[in-house]
Amino acid sequence: MKDLADLPTTLQQLNTQRPIKSKRNRWNVAISDFARLTHNPIRAIVEGLNIEPNPNKPLIALSIGDPTTFGNLKPSPETIDAIRQAIEDGTGNGYAPANGHLEAREAVARYVQHQGPVTPNDVILCSGCSSSLDLCISVLGGPGKNILIPKPGFSIYRTLAEGFGIECRTYDLLPERNWEADLVQLEQLIDEQTCALVVTNPGNPCGSVFPRAHLEAIVDIAERHFVPIIADEIYEHFVFPGHEFHAVSSLSGRVPVLSCGGLTKRFLVPGWRMGWIIVHDREGAFAEVRRGLANLSVRILGSNTLVQRALPAILDNTPNDFFDDLVATLHRHAEMAYKAIKQIRGLNPIMPGGAMYMMVGIDVEHFPEFETDLSFVEALVHEQSVFCLPGQCFEYPNYFRLVLTVPETMIVEAVKRLEEFCEQHYKLDNDILLQQQNGLLNQMTLL
C-alpha cells in the first residue's frame, strides 16, 4: 500500500499522471430524449389561454377533475378511520415490497373479483392510477411501436407514451352513439407494431359507459389481431341508473388485459396516490410482461406504505351506501346540468352514463365571433367567470368539458351564466348571412 505522502495532492499532479479524456470547455447540460418528448397537452393548451375572470363575478371552475376540490364530497368515515388506525399502529412507516404488502394485495384481489379470477400475485400496487398506466404503457411499448387511444380521451395516455417514442393512434368515440368507439376505424389502425389498445370505461372526458355488447366487439377485435388491452377502469362502478359496468377482463378468456384502478375517484382520496394493476394473463401471453412489471416496480421502491396498511380496512369496510349516495349525487348533478344546458341555444350537451364529466357541443356556426372552442372558453371566463376545459384539450374541437362534482348551487349558477353568455353571442342564420354580406361589401369597398 502506498504511503499517503506519495499520493498526488494537486490537480496538476493528477492531470500529469492520468490523461483527461473530456474536451468540454463550457456548460452544455443536455436533457434526455425521454424528457424532451414528454409533454402534457392539457397544460400546454390551458397555459396558452388568456384566462382573466370577470372581477365582478366569483370564478366557477368546472375544469378540475378532482372531486375533493370544493369540500362537498368527502371520503367515508371508514376510510378515515382506517388511515388513522394505520398511523397509530405504526406499521406503515417503512418500505414495502416493490409490488406492495401481501395483505394489501390480498384485499385488492378480493375487491376486484368482478374482473374474473384474481390472486394477490396478479396485483401490483402503484402510486395512483396514473402510475399504473405509466407502468403498463412502458412495459408494452417502445420506439417504433404504436398504441391505440380514444379520442376524445384522457391526455395522460399521450403524455406517457410519447416520452418513450411510442406513436399514438387515436380511434374516434362517436357522440351520436353516446360515445361508443368507431369499431371499423379502430380495426383499421392496427398493424404489426401495435403494442396495446387502451380502453377507458367508464370514460373521461365523456362520462361514457360502454354496453356489454360494444365491449365484446372491442375485445373481439383485440383477439383477432392479438393486441393486448390496457383497461383504464378507475371509474369502475361509477355508473348512473340504466347503465351497467362490465370489466373488460371479464368478457374474454383469451385476450390478455392489464386493468388499472385505484382509490382515487370512487373513494374520494386522489391525493393518497393508491392505484393498482391487475394482470389478467391468458395462456402465458404475459409471462414476460409480469417480469417486466416487476422490474419497473423497483424504480420507485413501491407505493405509499401507510395507505397500503389501511387498504384492507378501506376496501372491506366501506359500505355500499356510501358509493350509492355518491353516484346518486353525481347523477342528480348530471341531470340538472343536462336539462338546463339543453335549453340553451347553440349548445348540445350529451348526457353521461357515469363518471364525473359531461361533454357539451358548441354550434360554432352560430357563434361566428369565436374562431375556436378555445376563444369561446376564453370569452366565457372573461365575461362570466365560468371556466370549462375546451375540447381541444382532449383532441376534440368544438366541445367543452364540465365537471359534475362541484356543489349543486355552483352548477345552477354556472348554467345561468352560461345561458346569459350564449344568448348574448348567439347569431341566427339570417344574422350570420347579413354579417357575411357586410364583410364582403367592406372588402369590395377596400378594393
From TrEMBL:
It catalyses: L-tyrosine + 2-oxoglutarate = 3-(4-hydroxyphenyl)pyruvate + L-glutamate. Pathway: Amino-acid degradation; L-phenylalanine degradation; acetoacetate and fumarate from L-phenylalanine: step 2/6. Its EC number is 2.6.1.5. GO terms for biological process: L-phenylalanine catabolic process; L-tyrosine catabolic process. The keyword Transferase applies. Its cofactor is pyridoxal 5'-phosphate. Residues 58-418 form the Aminotransferase class I/classII large domain. The keyword Transferase applies. InterPro entries: Aminotransferase_I/II_large, NHTrfase_class1_PyrdxlP-BS, PyrdxlP-dep_Trfase, PyrdxlP-dep_Trfase_major, PyrdxlP-dep_Trfase_small, TyrNic_aminoTrfase, Tyrosine_aminoTrfase. The modification N6-(pyridoxal phosphate)lysine is found at K265. One of its GO terms (molecular function) is L-tyrosine-2-oxoglutarate transaminase activity. Gene3D superfamilies: Aspartate Aminotransferase, domain 1 (3.90.1150.10), Type I PLP-dependent aspartate aminotransferase-like (Major domain) (3.40.640.10). It holds the Pfam family Aminotran_1_2. Keywords: Aminotransferase, Phenylalanine catabolism, Pyridoxal phosphate, Transferase, Tyrosine catabolism. Belongs to the class-I pyridoxal-phosphate-dependent aminotransferase family. NCBIfam families: tyr_amTase_E, tyr_nico_aTase. Homodimer. Transaminase involved in tyrosine breakdown. Converts tyrosine to p-hydroxyphenylpyruvate. This is Tyrosine aminotransferase.
